[in-house]
């Protein structure tokens, strides 16, 4: 299905990441957003609120992030594509409703423009401190899809991708931006609508009498309905059977939760996206995502200029984590270590350590937030890691 | 010996998910009574039932959505109203009913309650008030009368409860009524009126919790609660809501307190956009939001 041309501002633009994200949502066919103002994410809904009435949609400013993150789910069950945007403190408040969306298989997009934390932290400055919260923040077992753009162009592209994945897997999808990506202005190319492919909602073709709301199809995702069509369906955040009725049966719970996890985990390879630079012969791999990947690329280039075989692995999909690719890269000879650069004091590095399983040294270049790493500092660490191996040899 | 008794079919059976019976409510609980009224009101109002959606929060009253044979949503604790807001605004042809308890709607969901009333979102909010958190074992709530015993106020509740009709009116509700589980005809009538009215409508129904509230306060069983409702209720249509607060086992002002006209959120939004954007505003939300 192609995008509706009315929502697509085709052309070459000079936009910041927040604005590009709003345009991505509109291009993806999203016509409903609810939100609560929070720096540095607010510009997304400001642009959306200005544009969407002309497209017959609406932005609703709610009383808090709990309300925003559940209002979008009400709109989805009425048939709309919907999203909400927030930052750290608001993201924390939305956790319960990420779980509700996962449990009720409600396709929706939640954008987190990360800022320094914990608590109110550094409202106007960047961080990448919500990466593990994105994965584990709501209680109970579930899998999540989270993408991390590193440019305004990707804020546009990955917002569309987030909506598509939400529909494909009937799951909440998180777009993990950061303050710099959100506020950085760059060239953004918006393609014409006929070049934007959208995944339509997977509505059932069955008549009400034959329809079971949570009976999975071959890919473990059930077909959906919307309110007002005569299906008389029931949706609950309680553990439910295929009819959607609450149950406290442990076997039914096991079936449901395993399916919710498997529908994403089984497709991890297809969901994994990475960008790679100079990895063919890399002795030191720098792993970085979001804005940090751009600083890290500079450091890698500096190392290469000094004759050090450094490379960059940038996960674009953070969850599912590009585990298979990382295992592949770290199982070959000649690798002296992985340097994980992130604007937190050690989150994704734990995932890297898990994947690497002690085969090569993993080192963290952490940053408590409020800025980005200096390329020189990363470069020096790369040199140190390369030299350490030289000395051993 | 054949002991089977042939009963006439229950006239509201079509509105119930009979495949989910028996329900979880205790003997003497009033929630089922209110639901019977709800089913009868739906029948009397002659609504297209495929376009009626019920949204509940969490708690004993939150289970109503699960037993109603309608499109139904059992949401998170306290968030039935914002969920219903998104649902209604994205598809205004739906009649959206929020059916939940006092703790869910007024404590954890209290902020959403006042803001939806302020915006005048077209929702029919039915609050079953049993003075207590029933599902979790009888803790103090925002409607527990002062001095009443609960599991978390074992020496008596020191707090002032909310006067719900006063709160609803102050926040902007266009229809506010209170009845008790004893007043089945009045409840049904009030619900029919709410279905026919546009805007944020609020109905409080006092309902017995024999297992936790009645027993702990030595107030007898469900029948005793009905006797109290019958004897203590004073019908005061149009009474100033400030005067309809409830004290422990005191008089219960009941009736329709508020019934006014005020444009709904969607009407105001459409007016505002049409006025500001003029010809650029091609239409009303409902035609376009749904993909």
How would you describe what is shown here?
The complex is a heterodimer of chains A (393) and B (291). By secondary structure, chain A is an alpha/beta fold. In chain A, helix 1 crosses helix 2 (42-51), helix 1 packs parallel to helix 6 and helix 3 (65-77) packs parallel to helix 4 (88-104). Helix content of chain A is 38%, strand content 21%. With 291 residues, chain B is α/β, with parallel strands linked by helices. Chain B is built from 11 helices and 8 strands. In chain B, strand 1 (52-56), helix 2 (64-67) and strand 2 (71-74) form a beta-alpha-beta unit. The longest helix of chain B has 15 residues, at 31-45. Chain B is globular and about 65 Å long. Chain B starts with 30 loop residues before the first helix and ends with a helix. The mean pLDDT of chain B is 95. The chains are: A alpha/beta (393), B alpha/beta (291). At the A-B interface, helix 3, helix 4 and strand 10 of A face strand 2, helix 3, helix 5, helix 10 and helix 11 of B.
Attribute tags:
heterodimer, A: 393 residues, alpha/beta, 8-stranded mixed sheet, 5-stranded mixed sheet, 16 strands, B: 291 residues, 11 helices
């Amino acid at each position: 299905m192609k995008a509706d041309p009315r929502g697509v501002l085709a052309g070459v633009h000079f936009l910041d990441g927040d604005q590009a994200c709003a345009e991505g949502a509109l291009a993806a066919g999203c016509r409903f957003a609810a939100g609560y103002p929070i720096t540095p994410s607010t510009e997304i809904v400001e642009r959306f609120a200005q544009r969407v009435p002309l497209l017959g949609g609406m932005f609703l400013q709610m009383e808090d992030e709990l309300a925003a993150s559940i209002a979008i789910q009400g709109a989805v069950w009425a048939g709309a594509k919907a999203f909400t945007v927030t930052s750290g403190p608001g993201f924390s408040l939305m956790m319960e409703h990420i779980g509700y969306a996962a449990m009720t298989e409600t396709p929706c997009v939640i954008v987190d423009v990360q800022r320094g934390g914990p608590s109110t932290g550094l409202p106007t400055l960047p961080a990448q401190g919500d990466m593990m919260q994105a994965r584990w923040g709501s209680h109970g077992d579930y899998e999540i899809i989270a993408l991390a753009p590193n440019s305004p162009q990707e804020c546009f592209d990955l917002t569309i991708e987030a909506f598509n994945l939400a529909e494909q897997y009937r799951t909440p999808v998180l777009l993990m931006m950061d303050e710099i990506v959100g506020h950085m202005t760059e060239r953004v190319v918006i393609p014409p609508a006929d070049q934007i492919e959208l995944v339509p909602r997977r509505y059932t073709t069955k008549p009400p009498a034959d329809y079971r709301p949570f009976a999975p199809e071959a890919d473990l995702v059930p077909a959906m309905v919307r309110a007002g069509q005569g299906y008389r369906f029931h949706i609950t955040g309680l553990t439910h059977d295929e009819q959607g009725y609450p149950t406290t049966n442990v076997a039914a719970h096991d079936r449901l939760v395993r399916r919710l996890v498997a529908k994403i985990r089984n497709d991890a390879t297809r969901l994994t996206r990475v960008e790679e630079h100079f990895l063919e012969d890399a002795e030191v791999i720098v792993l970085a995502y979001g804005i940090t990947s751009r600083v890290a690329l500079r450091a890698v280039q500096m190392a290469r200029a000094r004759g050090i075989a450094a490379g960059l692995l940038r996960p674009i999909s953070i969850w599912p984590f590009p585990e298979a690719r990382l295992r592949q890269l770290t199982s070959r000879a000649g690798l002296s270590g992985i340097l994980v650069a992130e604007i937190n004091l050690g989150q994704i590095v734990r995932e890297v350590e898990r994947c690497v399983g002690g085969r090569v040294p993993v080192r963290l270049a952490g940053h408590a937030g409020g800025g980005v790493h200096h390329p020189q500092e990363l470069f020096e660490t790369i040199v140190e890691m390369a030299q350490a191996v030289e000395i051993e040899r | 010996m054949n002991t089977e008794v042939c009963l006439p079919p229950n006239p509201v059976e079509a509105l119930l998910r009979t495949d989910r019976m028996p329900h979880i409510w205790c003997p003497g609980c009033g929630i089922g009574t209110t639901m019977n009224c709800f089913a009868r009101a739906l029948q009397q109002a002659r609504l297209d039932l495929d376009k009626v959606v019920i949204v509940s929060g969490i708690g004993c009253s939150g289970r109503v959505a699960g037993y109603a044979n309608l499109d139904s949503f059992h949401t998170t604790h306290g968030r039935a109203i914002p969920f219903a807001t998104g649902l209604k605004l994205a598809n205004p042809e739906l009649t959206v009913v929020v059916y939940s308890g006092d703790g869910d709607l007024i404590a954890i969901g209290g902020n959403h309650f006042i803001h939806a009333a302020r915006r005048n979102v077209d929702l029919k909010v039915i609050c079953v008030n049993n003075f207590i958190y029933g599902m979790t074992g009888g803790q103090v709530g925002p409607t527990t009368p002062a001095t009443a015993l609960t599991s978390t106020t074992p020496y008596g509740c020191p707090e002032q409860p909310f006067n719900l009709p006063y709160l609803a009116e102050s926040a902007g509700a266009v229809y506010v009524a209170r009845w008790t589980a004893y007043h089945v005809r009045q409840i049904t009538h009030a619900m029919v009126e709410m279905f026919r009215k546009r805007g944020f409508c609020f109905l409080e129904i006092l309902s017995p919790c024999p297992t936790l509230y009645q027993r702990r306060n030595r107030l007898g069983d469900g029948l005793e609660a009905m006797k109290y409702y019958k004897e203590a209720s004073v019908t005061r249509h149009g009474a100033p809501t400030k005067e309809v607060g409830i004290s422990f086992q005191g008089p219960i002002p009941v009736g329709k307190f508020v019934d006014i006209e005020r444009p709904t959120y969607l009407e105001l939004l459409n007016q505002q956009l049409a006025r500001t954007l003029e010809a650029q505003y091609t239409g009303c939300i409902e035609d376009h939001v749904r993909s």
